[in-house]
Design a protein that fits this description.
Blueprint: H1 2-9, H2 13-29, H3 33-40, H4 43-49, H5 55-61, H6 72-85, H7 92-99, H8 108-118, E1 140-145, E2 151-156, E3 162-167, E4 172-176, E5 182-186, E6 193-198, E7 204-209, E8 214-218, E9 224-228, E10 235-240, E11 246-251, E12 256-260, E13 266-270, E14 279-282, E15 288-292, E16 298-302, E17 308-312, E18 325-330, E19 336-341, E20 354-358, E21 363-368, E22 374-379, E23 385-390, E24 394-399, E25 405-410, E26 416-422, E27 427-432, E28 436-441, H9 442-456, H10 460-467, H11 469-472
Antiparallel strand pairs: 1-28, 2-3, 3-4, 4-5, 6-7, 7-8, 8-9, 10-11, 11-12, 12-13, 14-15, 15-16, 16-17, 18-19, 19-20, 20-21, 22-23, 23-24, 24-25, 26-27, 27-28
Helix pairs in contact: 2-3, 5-6, 6-7, 7-8, 9-10
């Protein structure tokens, strides 16, 4: 392959750039799989290609390979390194060596690629000698350098092709889930974007901002379609009903508003809260809004009339608890609510930081006293597990039935403000105050969590099918 690189170097700039960007496509179309694999497993080739194309474009070229090809680990390593390589292409050497360290013996091509990168002395680099970087094939799928400020909200489109993010840099961004490519930047807000949502038909993005407005955008063009005025404080949360007809927004002004999605008309104002509204969600049947925030009660109320059907009050007679409510989630049946608690800033709440309430009985079914605050919560699609994003930069997964913590995800360097789950529960996406979005492989996480018990069991296959998180999530 070095002879090919020499030939490419001898071409004029136009032809050289064309071949670097398109040769993999031609190899694939000509069904020259061996040549394609040689091309994509050459460190010199990868280094040259990244001088003329984005890492996301290179990542997509590995899609021509079969799913079980060992070189998919190189694709995974590139995804995990994308946020670094796009900032400084010369980091490719240290990133690949560091993230493929435990996979060098998986194939001759990977072994040769890493060895070549280690010896590529023309580019100075710090080469890890132990797996201090997340390893390809592990729990991290990819990392996006998403925003110049904290990522405050993320959502996946219904077709699961795009991630929408809102951040403190006053922008909304649209990302290709598979490649991590930044597709569109939506400018228009004049304050931090605290919340984003997507309509069920996948056509419109809803965003709420500290500029006190809610905006509606076209997901394909990025065009701003409507701006909804009415709140007198920052908009902290937005949601959309399952039929897509209504938008719900919660604000620092202690109100929740319901809007018509198409016309932008303000249909109802709910003003029973005594503190800033930090979270709003809609029950799966679309009949009720659940809202809360600050040092206040959690309220469940009829979306048409505003009539309250449930108020969650702590045994001590105040709100849900004497702490600051940050996040809410409802399960698929609409019967359980997760509440995440955390004081403003980094000060840790005393008492419970995570609570599950039964809407029907109005009783707690689970509560956790933690060493950190919780900024984001959600149920897995099968309602067996709850996931929390924390101020420690970690994501914690609990088994709801047993109340046991089953796994901790570590990758963010600061608070995790947003999480979502997709691909039938196989992938978690998280957004953080460190400005990144990370995609996590829940299947790999599960396998790692149970590996010791699986290996210790003589009848490991039956144990795995019966007990593992992988089975219980119906993956």
């Amino acid at each position: 392959m070095s002879s090919l690189i020499e030939k490419i170097h001898n071409l004029n700039d136009e032809r050289r750039i064309y071949l670097l960007r398109n040769l993999a496509v031609h190899f694939n179309e000509a069904q020259k799989t061996t040549r394609l694999r040689d091309f994509l497993s050459s460190f010199e080739v990868l280094q040259e290609k990244l001088a003329v194309q984005k890492c996301a474009e290179l990542v997509r070229e590995f899609d021509y390979l079969t799913q079980d090809d060992p070189l998919k680990l190189v694709q995974n390593a590139l995804r995990m390194s994308q946020h670094v390589i796009d900032y400084d292409v010369h980091q490719l050497r240290s990133q690949l060596c560091g993230r493929l360290l435990e996979n060098k013996e998986n194939s001759p091509e990977i072994s040769k690629l890493v060895m070549t990168a280690e010896q590529f002395s023309s580019i100075p680099a710090l080469i890890p000698t132990s797996p201090t970087l997340g390893q390809a094939g592990g729990e991290i799928i990819s990392i996006y350098r998403a925003h110049e400020a904290d990522v405050r909200s993320i959502v996946i489109t219904p077709d699961e092709r795009f991630i929408i993010s809102g951040a403190g840099d006053e922008t909304v961004k649209i990302w290709d889930v598979h490649s991590g490519e930044e597709l569109l930047i939506l400018h228009g807000h004049t304050g931090a974007v605290n919340a984003v949502a997507i309509t069920p038909n996948g056509q419109f993005i809803i965003s709420g901002s500290e500029d006190k407005t809610v905006k509606i955008w076209d997901v394909h063009s990025g065009e701003e379609l409507l701006t909804l005025y009415g709140h007198t404080g920052a908009v902290n949360a937005v949601a959309v009903t399952p039929d897509g007809q209504f938008i719900i927004s919660g604000s620092e002004d202690k109100t929740v508003k319901i809007w018509n999605t198409l016309s932008g008309e303000n249909l109802l104002d709910y003003s029973e809260h005594s503190s800033a509204v930090e979270a709003v969600i809609v029950t799966p049947d679309g009949q009720f809004v659940i809202s809360g925030g600050g040092y206040d009660k959690i309220r469940v109320w009829n979306i048409q009339s505003g009539e309250v059907i449930a108020v969650f009050i702590d045994e001590r007679g105040g709100g849900l608890c004497p702490h600051y409510v940050r996040a809410l989630a409802v399960n698929q049946s609409g019967e359980l609510i997760i509440v995440g608690v955390g004081e403003p800033g980094m000060r840790k709440s005393e008492g419970e930081q995570l609570v599950i309430w039964d809407i029907v009985s109005k009783k707690k079914t689970l509560s956790k006293v933690l060493d950190y605050n919780v900024d984001a919560v959600m149920f897995t699609p099968d309602d067996h597990f709850m996931i929390a994003g924390t101020t420690q930069g970690k994501i914690i997964i609990w088994d709801i039935e047993s109340g046991e913590q089953v796994h901790t995800l570590k990758g963010h360097s600061r608070e995790v403000y947003a999480i979502c789950i997709f691909d039938n529960g196989r992938i978690i996406a998280s957004g953080s105050n460190d400005g990144t979005i990370i995609l996590w492989n829940l299947v790999t996480i599960t396998q790692e969590t149970n590996r010791a018990q699986i290996e210790a069991s003589e009848d490991w296959h039956d144990w795995y099918i019966e007990k593992s998180l992988y089975h219980r999530m119906n993956i």
